[in-house]
Amino acid sequence: MKYQILKTNCEEEIKQLFTDVFTESETPAEGTLIGNLVEELQKTTKPEDIFCFVAIDKNKIIASIFFTRFTTETNLNAFILSPVAVATQHQKKGIGQNLIKFAIDYLKQNNVELLLTYGDPDFYSKVSFKNISEEIIKAPLKLTYPNGWLAQSLISENVSPVNGSTMCVKALMDQKYW
Ligand SMILES: CC(C)(COP(=O)(O)OP(=O)(O)OC[C@H]1O[C@@H](n2cnc3c(N)ncnc32)[C@H](O)[C@@H]1OP(=O)(O)O)[C@@H](O)C(=O)NCCC(=O)NCCS
């Protein structure tokens, strides 16, 4: 098993991985939605605003994760994690957590200061994310599940409040993902 940043062009393979995983874990409609999201993220995001990491086993991508730029009025170097998928037959073996930890280390070394995500606190707390309120950091769109608004600082113990409104990349600026 190898964890690495994705530099080659594997757009179709990655789209298929996300479509399959979310079809199997949720519904075919969710699979299509998330497959299309990762296609949009790869097509419409400037290279300096996106990181994709993968886990490779026997020359096949078996897990993948995206981080895209999260813009604050204070110009913090911040990224949001979304989405992540581990191939169904490889889930629950620690690969998801290891891939996220690999990515966080890489981003820390590249001077990223703050990470956000929006998801299940029980899972993301295993990789150091903590619940935050919108008084600490505003979400770019309305949160359907405020409990899932999570962050971690890569430069200090706690997440400091961030003034003003926030934005994410174009592909994620759609209420259906929030
Ligand atoms: C969620 C996901 C990325 C986790 O990766 P993974 O390799 O299966 O998880 P790991 O083996 O590293 O971690 C397993 C731990 O996380 C928990 N966990 C796994 N999936 C979870 C989920 N969907 N919700 C809450 N907790 C979850 C397990 O209970 C387990 O906890 P334990 O170690 O205390 O038993 C993966 O299961 C997946 O792709 N699921 C379908 C798609 C999805 O839900 N993506 C996340 C939203 S973007």
UniProtKB/TrEMBL annotation:
CDD domains from the UniProt entry: NAT_SF
One Gene Ontology MF term: acyltransferase activity, transferring groups other than amino-acyl groups
Keyword Metal-binding included in the entry's annotation: no
Keyword Transferase: yes
Keywords for the protein's UniProt record, in alphabetical order: Transferase
InterPro entries xrefs: Acyl_CoA_acyltransferase, GNAT_dom
Domain of life: Bacteria
Leader peptide range in chain numbering: none
Gene3D superfamilies hit by this protein: 3.40.630.30
Domain N-acetyltransferase positions: 1-146
Name listed for the protein in its UniProt record: N-acetyltransferase
Origin species: Desulfobacter latus
Highest classification ranks of the organism: Bacteria, Pseudomonadati, Thermodesulfobacteriota, Desulfobacteria, Desulfobacterales
